[in-house]
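Cross-posting from the chemistry board since nobody answered there.

I work mostly on the small-molecule side, so proteins are not my area. We synthesized pyridoxal-5'-phosphate and want a rough idea of how it might sit in this target. Sequence and SMILES are below. Is it possible to get a predicted 3D structure of the two together?
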Amino acid sequence: MTSLDAFAGDKLNQLEAASLLRRLKPTRRLPGGWVERDGRRLLSFSDNDYLGLSHHPAVIAAAQAATAEHGAGAGASRLVTGDNPLFSALEERLARLKGTEAACLFGSGYLANTGVIPTFAGPKDIVLVDQLAHACIWAGAQLSGARIIPFRHNDVAHLAELLAEHRASARHALVATDGVFSMDGDVAPLGALSDLCAAHDAWLLSDDAHGVGVLAHGKGSAALFPGAVIPLQMGTLSKALGAYGGYLCGSKAVVDLLKTRARTVVYTTGLPPGAAAAALAALDVIEADPDMAALPLAKARAFTQAVGLPPATSPIVPVIIGEAQAALDASRALEAEGFLVVAIRPPTVPVGAARLRIAFSAQHPDAEIARLAALVRPFVKVTA
Ligand SMILES: *Cc1c(COP(=O)(O)O)cnc(C)c1O
């Protein structure tokens, strides 16, 4: 055995012993929120396709037509020959949706955060990050070379203390948070964060991966806080918009700098044209049906009420189980009943906070939600 294989084998054994080994499971996603795994049909509560748009006929048709017209791939970096005309059309639509001057597309949400943060922060700067922020915000902060200062989850007072202590020592300060937290479903206090950033000349980045398409008539989490100033509004095309790709909405100067300097724009191939066309069509569908965007949250609220949890604030509802193995067992019990609810384990969530992460879609039948609630209720811990 080579030392490389020995290293990998040891790591795998350790992960397996701690119930932390992850395995890919081929899954056919079907319309209506259904999936097929190991020959079984399950109703999935583990997709981020909150509106079912990945299977919407108009979205599929747009992707097919754009692929036929422009080819399967963009062929080069956008700065070479890969800047398909669909991209600027999509950027205009996203900027309009978010109320910003401009937008910049990225290959994915992960690539957006790992490109944006290092463009605006460097070794003389500080990046303050919510402890529960998504992995790609941490990755972007690390790539920037700035000093990273974590703040307690959604704790504005703690962030205020840290800014008071450290802001003067840094050239620039960037504050980064999820708008909707991906594993907890709660919403960041963007109004208070915006005020604090204004007081300390800090730049606020909000990641709206789970807000766009589902909160505030589809505009996303920032629109829940009128008056909040969020100069860096990041998000993804890969969740409620049913396609693939990421974006940053901001001022013209911010976006122009990204397009010439962000390494995940410059040194990577443009999006597949079909993905951009799909996202454009998804935005059309959302605009044409203003009530649809509210459905995932309404369904999540019906569920939290049925199981006795505080009212959902987004389509994501966590049911904290604790140990990784117990979360896996709970997930398996639900699967036996026809529900796919994937267990989320460390390091995606803190040690001891393994959970069922239940994500609601506009398409979930109410009767199935009620049946799921009855099965999940015994796992819900009663808190004082
Ligand atoms: C999923 C997610 C991303 C990454 O988006 P992709 O387009 O899937 O790369 C970024 N931030 C948050 C909060 C997410 O949940």
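Reply from a structural biologist on the board:
Welcome over. Reading the output above for you: The CA atoms of residues 128 and 175 lie 5 Å apart. The pocket of pyridoxal-5'-phosphate is lined by residues 108-110, 134, 136, 178, 182, 207, 209-210, 236, 238, 246 (CB under 6 Å). Happy to explain the token format if needed.
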